[in-house]
Amino acid sequence: MNAIANSAFRGAAAITGVGHAGLGDAKGFSEMEILSIAAQRAVADAGLTMADIDGLCTCSGSATMWALPVAEYLGLRPSFVDSTMLGGSSFIAHLMPAVHALMAGVCNAVLVCYGSTQRSGSVDRAAVTKMRQVLDPQPYERPYEPMQPISAYALATARHMHRYGTTREQLAEVAVAARAWARTNPLAFSRGPLSIDDVVGSRMVCDPLSVRDCCLLTDGAGAFVLTRSDRAKDAPHKPVYVLGNASETWNRQISSMPDLTTTAASVSGPRALSMAGVGIADVDLACLYDAFTINVILFLEDLGFCAKGEGGSFVQGGGIAPGGRLAVNTNGGGLSFGHPGMYGTFLVLEAVEQLRGTAGERQLPNLEVALVHGNGSTLSSQSTAIFGTEATVS
């Protein structure tokens, strides 16, 4: 985008409402039901009603036209719809078209929502697998029947360890830091003590990743509401402004990655920061998609928080834990807060809570800029967003 377009986008829209539901285990509820609860909470939090919502962004890993039943169930008649499916990064990638629709006057209030009951729900996994094989064949990998997605992330982890000397103890630092943050969050699914030795000594799932290097399997729904910044000033809570957003994808299958240790975040991050008019040193909080411990190390490097190959040393010694050099995943992340299939929505919700100053015990002081980064599938899609308080746009 050119400088004029970047300037127009920056701060044009803000998040005015957030909501979640069914976190952890939502036994007895469908994914549509908990999505609906989260959506209603987000809309009410924004000081609106469902009748005010005329834009919808949503997608699901188990349905190809998910926006249609969601609109029907919520009683919406949206003039703007985006149901682009990029995996867990989708709900961060949705920001760009949603903000542009708001800027163009196509709609006035956009609801972004997601829900999954993958932990408690009765899912015909064989049928889902068959559907995915037809819609997403992955011809270079599926014939070998890898244990996806973990096989792909184990491959990237092994390569990073080989090339840069990253250790299992450094990977464990990511999980331990997430747990330390989760212990300050009453909504987190896993809040028990966790040590480096616990992670390293836990059951190996796919070498070199142990079960504690892998995200949780939980239920959960999350939603947020976007409006133009002029309307956001009348919302009940402090608006959280969208300063920049960029998405990038280089591959679908991990076997097609140009370099297993460098992701497309190395492009989406700088683009989003440039659009926002801030540098990486201005970021007070990083919410990074941590489906596996290696993700955080890769994204810290690719986004520019540290040099390539230095992610392991960056997180070492509690570098991203409470009191460390950078606050990362302050809600506990996918490793300890929860991970209902696609986690991107919850990254945004945590950034909003922190920027509003409503994060409770885990609240960071003097917070103005948050970076949110989503990852989809097997390091396949990357989307970065920069959010700021009113001070960043005034």
Overview features:
single chain, Peroxisomal Thiolase, Chain A, domain 1, 10-stranded mixed β-sheet, disordered N terminus, alpha/beta, 15 helices, two-stranded antiparallel sheet
- Listing every helix as H and every strand as E from the N terminus to the C terminus, the arrangement reads HEHEHEHHEHHHHEEEHEHEHHEHHEE
Determine the CATH topology: Peroxisomal Thiolase, Chain A, domain 1
CATH classification, class level = Alpha Beta
The neighbouring-strand order within the major sheet is: 3-2-4-7-1-8-12-11-9-10
Q: What gyration radius follows from the Cα positions, in whole Å?
A: 19 Å
CATH architecture: 3-Layer(aba) Sandwich
Query: What is the strand content?
Result: 15-25%
- Can you tell me the CATH superfamily? Thiolase/Chalcone synthase
